[in-house]
Specification:
Mean pLDDT: 86
Helix content: 10-25%
Structural class: alpha+beta
Number of domains: 1
CATH class: Mainly Beta
Strand order of the largest sheet: 1-3-6-5
Shape: elongated
Number of helices: 1
Number of strands: 8
Amino acid sequence: MALRGLVSNVVAVALLLATANSALGHARFIRSEPEPDAVLVESPGSVTVWFGELLEVEGSRIQVFGPDGSQTDLGDSGLLANDHKALAVGLFPGLGPGTYVVVWENVSAEDGDSSRGEFTFTICEGCEE
C-alpha cells in the first residue's frame, strides 16, 4: 500500500515538472539594468536585459521609448558578446526627466519560441538616490 502511494506521488511530481518545463519553454526575463520601475537621478547610457535561455540574434531586440512616445535608443540593440542570454541597447545621451518604456522581444536559440515584454524606469531630476 505504501509503495502504491509512493508511485502515485512520483508520477504526480513528474507530471507537474513536465507541465512547468513546457510553460517555461520561452526565454523568460531574469533581470535588467536599470531594474523595472527604477527611479534614477541621471540618464543611463544603455539598457541591458538578461533572459533564462540563449537567444537568437534574429528576432531578439530592445527598444526604449520616452515620455512623449519617441524612440530614445540608438537602434544598436544586440546580444552581449560575452553572454548570449543578454540583450543591450545604447541610449541617446542626456535623456530628460520622465518615464521611459523598455520593450523587449526575443527568440530562444534553444527551442525557437518567442517572448515579449516591457517595463519602465523613471529619470527624476532633483531626486536623491
